[in-house]
Amino acid sequence: ALTGGVSSDIWKVKLRAGPVCVKRALPRLRVAELWEAPVGRNRYEWRWMQVAARIAPGCAPRVLAHDEAGLFAMEYLDAGRYPLWKHELRAGRADPAFARQVGERLAQVHAATAGDARMAAEFATDEGFHAIRLEPYLLATARRHADVAAQLLRLAERTAATRTALVHGDVSPKNILIGPQGPVFLDAECAWYGDPAFDLAFCLNHLLLKCLWVPGAADRFMACYDTLAGGYLSVHGAAGLEARAASLLPGLLLARIDGKSPVEYVTEEAQKARVRTVARALLVSPPDTLAEVRSAWHGS
User: Fold this and answer.
1) Given this model, what pLDDT does residue 34 score?
2) 157: which residues sit within 8 A by CB, 6+ positions away?
3) Is the pLDDT of residue 7 over 80?
4) Can you tell me the distance from the alpha carbon of 218 to that of 299, in angstroms, rounded to the nearest whole number?
């Protein structure tokens, strides 16, 4: 058994031909609050990896087999050759050039699937995305912050109603490997044909929060924020996308403190207060650009 996941069982299986990785989605996630999700998401993760690897070769593990009972097998990527981006950031090693690659590869998948009716039909996973992302993040946070609840509800409604590209749904440093040829994306079980601004905002949110985890590397994390956003928008700068990402980001920022899935490394009350202050102000006066979010965070 491999450790680290809250939503699936994951195993390293040794075969004569070499090791593989097998994954099975759980009906109830391993978190403190009740959080349930359809196990059928396993199939959509498998399909996302196939689609993404075809668009940007090497950006996802090679998938080997899928079982309708709810398991799939993929190649096993050794940590010695594929270090986890989260571990590198924890050590203060934040490479803006790699962050730019993350933005560019993510944007390639979005751009190649934009306006694709066949993809929209294949990844019509609205129910699952609501259960795994919108409800535990934005809606759960709205129940704890009555004064900005209306803003959070509007963000959830807008995100749910925007269906323009194939979305990964969990673009986080814990799900990105640093491969020899660039970033490799894991854990696409939230895959959904929806708003690509969600993926961009979700990943940038982690870079902001990492400033609280490793304060000494905050400037390097912010440099990564800039290059990731710039790399993404240089490839897929669809009209309105940056504004949607910028206005969604403070909702996700607040959700990682007061939603159902708080980040494990923000534990001090002063740090939580900083997040709440910045996020709530930006929810009340929504930003149009990612640079505005950066400025608000940097100046807090």
Assistant:
1) 53
2) none
3) no
4) 13
**CA atoms of 205 and 247, how far apart (whole Å):** 12
Note the pLDDT tens digit of each residue in 227-254: 999 999 999 999 999 999 999 999 999 9
Q: What is the 3-state secondary structure (H, E, C) of 247-278?
A: HHHHHHHHHHHHCCCCCCCCCCHHHHHHHHHH
Give Cβ neighbours of residue 136 (< 8 Å, ≥ 6 apart).
33, 35, 255, 259, 260, 261
pLDDT value of position 186: 94
- CA 243/CA 261 separation, integer angstroms: 25
The CA distance from 245 to 202, in Å, is: 9
Token representation of residue 116: 């694709």
> What is the pTM (predicted TM-score) of this model?
0.93
Place of tokens 């803003």: 151
Burial class (CB in 10 A: 0-12, 13-18, 19+), 13: exposed
Q: How far apart are CA 98 and CA 1, in angstroms?
A: 30
User: Contact 243/14 with Cβ under 8 angstroms?
Assistant: no
Alpha-carbon radius of gyration of the chain: 18
pLDDT digits (tens, 9 = 90+) for 28-46: 655 555 555 566 678 899 9
Q: For 92-127, how does the pLDDT look when each residue is reduced to its tens digit (9 = 90+)?
A: 999 999 999 999 999 999 999 999 999 999 999 999
Contact 127, 43 (CB under 8 A): no
**CB neighbourhood size of 212 (10 A):** 19
